[in-house]
Design a protein that fits this description.
- The complex is a heterodimer of chains A (314) and B (289).
- With 314 residues, chain A is mainly alpha-helical.
- Chain B has eleven helices and no strands.
- In chain B, helix 4 packs antiparallel against helix 9 and helix 7 runs antiparallel to helix 9.
- The radius of gyration of chain B is 23 Å and the shape is elongated.
- Chain B starts with a helix and ends with a helix.
- Chains A and B meet through helix 1, helix 7, helix 12, helix 13 and helix 14 of A and helix 5, helix 6, helix 9, helix 10 and helix 11 of B.
Amino acid sequence: MNLGGYVLRRLLQLVPITLGVTILVFFLIHLVPGDPAATILGNQATPARIALLHHQWGLDRPIWVQYGKFMGRVVHGNLGDSLFYGVSSGHLVLQRLPVTLWLIGFGTLLSVLIAVPLAAIAATNRDRIPDHVVRAVPLVGLGFPPFWVGIVLLLVFGLHVGRAFPVGGYGNGFVGHLHSMFLPALTVAFGIAPILIRSLRASLLEVLESEYVTTARAKGLPESRVLVRHALRNAVVSTVTVLGVNIGYLVGGTLVIEQVYALPGIGQLMINSIFQRDFPVVQAVTLVFSIMVVLVYLLSDVVHALLDPRVRFD
Amino acid sequence: MAVAAEAVVEAQLIEHRRGFAKRWYRTPSFVAGVTILGLIVLAAIAAPLITTHGPTSQDLLNTLQGPSGKHWLGTDDLGRDVWSRLVYGARTDLKVAFLAVLFPFTIGTLIGLVAGYYGGWVDTITNWLVNVVVAFPFYVLIIALVFALGSGTRNIYIAITIVGWVSYARIIRGEVLVAKRRDYVLAAKSGGLSDARIIFRHLLPNVVTQAIVFACSDIVLDILAIVTLGYLGLGVQPPNPDWGRMIADGQTFLTTHWELSTVPGIAVVVTALGLSLLADGLADLLRPE
């Protein structure tokens, strides 16, 4: 099967999942105890505003009609108007999306830069001290609350050690973003690198014992070339999948990290909207976050298929 | 025939337990995990005995004090004793985390058993639900659910259950798919045992191990989620002491009193380490030889 056909098939498989995601996001409003409109408006609830919300969300209609209305709006890119800002939630999300994408991209890059060398050191020194040290990293690292890592990094690199990095904000221009986003991205990397190290070390160990590595060594290739060209390239395949599977955790972590570093991304938008009880915006951000994850699943499948042509024929 | 099959299962289980009893103290990560966690649980239980002040009692004349004989870890911005809040915080967070893992474990295991055993449309729907929940970033869905349901401990349990059951269902389903083709299940079936008896008496004891091991590492994730919710002001409600809230409260004074945020964070890290070690050790011990 060619790559296009494979991608198309995976896309079709994602349709029911995306549909389910919209159903769950739609149902969020029905989880609100009591009359959702009254609860959401809180102390700003006047009979007129409640009636308006009821009408806007169609809360007085049967549930499938409500969902139909909701989907009708979603496919037109209309995620409802913000109760607080009075503009469309989609607009608010789009405005802040670049910051979050920056954070995710930069964080992923840093986590790979941390994980690959450490896993390589561990795998080439199996059961020796470097291996034990690296193996302890996931064990300890997974227990670090991401926001707390952020605070400690702020304390060390933002307030002490030469105040090398800004304590918050997004910065201006590419270099400015790079500088301002370094600590937040490092915090993201801290969360995901332990998982990557564990899986990459395991697959490297497996690959290093395979026959083609023995062949490469027997040909007299230098060990570094065997490791990079032959072993790593193949070990990385499973790691891409692991990264893809855990992207949900990584993406979710940015929500809290944006809060620590006061980054104006969609995570911060969500938290602020929660405290402003701005339901349409919370709904919109939740939907956008999950669609992002679904797209990353697709992307990691495509990368997997590119790296390992066998999966296309499964 | 069916009775014989049950006897075999029973024998395997006893064998398993004997192996466990013989080997647990030779598994370093298990011993380390039990020790660390044991100490923390003990401290949480004995909280009234080992703390010097009430966790919520304020002393506005002695705010932001450094460590001293009277206040071992100093006081916070409301003059509350940090050590006492830390120990009582262990009580809150450990209790919530353990309960929060129990519900998804039970529900996920049941769904996984049924989906794996019966297959067909039950399995298709379960798979679809699992894939839908997995498509949401963990924290995003938990936070959105807690927002919709309202903050507080009860709603944390509900939110974590809605998100957490999928992992257990997936693990158990996979194990059941393999196990239901094994001889002992086929024997039980041909012996005319009811589906319920086969599922709970024969399949469950054989497939539950992986879910238990996962539950140990899942508690780590739950503790982090609870502390994160506390940090965002959506978790355990004040004045109840909670490590996440302590970190958030201390962040305001980061430049002058850095220890207010770092100490509760270290408590989280040590607890999580204890649980991770325990999970690792259990995985080693319960792995069939």
